């Protein structure tokens, strides 16, 4: 896991619809490793590496993160937010955020913790996101306007990237899904001087958190034979969850099913055989709420042979979530071995496995 790349990706502010800071980081690291950089019309980045056989493989990591935009500013200078993506209201109070103005200026703010309703029951009720306020420490609306703040400006959790007390555990803002963006970048870097059979498309997709929108346009643009969405999956290894079998540190995740897609069974078997052959740790899991870019990717054209590979993530969709380096490294090894191994003949065998 390349901390320089991952830290830069996590610190970039990239609310859904405002992802350019993130795709620029990806471009910086991938441009020397690929033949061409392209974009779809929504801003998703697609880095293309030419192969030797007529088959197309697409890897995606979504570049957007959850957050809010300025809905209105009241006379006292408080910002009232509109949320984009699924924020958890209970995790927001007293957190530091960053607003990015149209001119690119960065303003720090704090999410207010007021309980304005007299009926509010302390420690029982949660203030809905749209009723929370963001406090930028000014006297008035005019103060904020003078700083360049306008309706629609994006507000994201403030940047954070911290190795914890065992070096395998790293907490950051926006692991969802800078993990995927990082895997896309690092796979391209690892294959820089390696000849592979497939044409490979390394993509950073926009607007996943609000409905897999970049995945749809990138899927249509590339029409991949095989597609792999790289993302985080919420693990259940905290003390609050008695099941706890899907855990940090037990390897990357081959996602069998979620609400957006069901993995191609032939591809799952093929990837698991690669893991066994190369000693790569993996877990299998499924989730009953949420999905990934695969929800759009698998149904492009006549269909794409598809799976999601994820990294288990604690405290997903909060300002500070935790991943494990070993899980990330397993996913990276699997992707590199897969791209070195896959060819037209193996694609045909995968297609035949469903006939
Ligand atoms: Zn995600």
TrEMBL record:
Molecular function via GO: aminopeptidase activity; metal ion binding
Protein name stated in the entry: Peptidase M28
Binding site for Zn(2+) 1: 62, 176, 231
Requisite cofactors: a divalent metal cation
UniProt KW Transport keyword: no
Organism: Candidatus Fimiplasma intestinipullorum
Protein family per UniProt: Belongs to the peptidase M42 family.
Sequence positions that bind Zn(2+) 2: 176, 209, 317
Taxonomic superkingdom: Bacteria
């Amino acid at each position: 896991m390349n901390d320089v790349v991952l830290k830069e990706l996590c610190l970039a502010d990239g609310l859904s619809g405002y992802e350019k800071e993130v795709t620029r980081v990806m471009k910086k690291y991938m441009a020397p490793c690929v033949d061409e950089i392209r974009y779809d019309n929504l801003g998703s980045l697609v880095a293309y590496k030419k192969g030797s056989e007529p088959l197309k493989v697409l890897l995606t990591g979504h570049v957007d993160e959850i957050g809010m935009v300025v809905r209105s500013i009241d006379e006292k200078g408080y910002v009232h937010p509109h949320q984009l993506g699924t924020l958890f209201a209970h995790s927001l109070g007293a957190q530091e955020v960053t607003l990015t103005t149209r001119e690119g200026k960065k303003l720090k703010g704090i999410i207010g913790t007021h309980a304005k309703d007299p009926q509010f029951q302390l420690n029982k009720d949660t203030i809905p996101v749209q009723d929370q306020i963001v406090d930028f420490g000014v006297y008035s609306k005019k103060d904020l306007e003078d700083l360049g703040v306008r309706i629609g400006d994006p507000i994201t959790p403030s940047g954070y990237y911290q190795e914890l007390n065992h070096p395998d555990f790293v907490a950051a803002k926006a692991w969802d899904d800078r993990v995927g963006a990082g895997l896309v970048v690092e796979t391209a870097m690892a294959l820089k001087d390696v000849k592979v059979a497939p044409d490979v498309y390394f993509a950073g997709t926009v607007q996943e958190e609000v409905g897999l929108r970049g995945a749809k346009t990138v899927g249509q643009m590339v029409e991949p034979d095989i597609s792999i969405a790289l993302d985080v999956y919420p693990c259940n290894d905290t003390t609050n969850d008695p099941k706890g079998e899907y855990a940090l540190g037990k390897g990357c995740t081959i996602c069998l099913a979620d609400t957006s897609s069901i993995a191609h069974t032939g591809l799952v078997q093929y990837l698991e055989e690669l893991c066994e052959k190369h000693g790569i740790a993996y877990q299998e899991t499924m989730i009953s709420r949420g999905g990934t870019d695969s929800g759009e990717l698998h149904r492009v054209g006549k269909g794409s042979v598809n799976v999601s590979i994820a990294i288990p993530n604690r405290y997903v969709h909060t300002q500070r979530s935790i991943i494990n380096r070993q899980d990330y490294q397993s996913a990276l090894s699997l992707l590199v071995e897969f791209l070195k191994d896959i060819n037209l003949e193996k694609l045909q065998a995968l297609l035949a496995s469903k006939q």
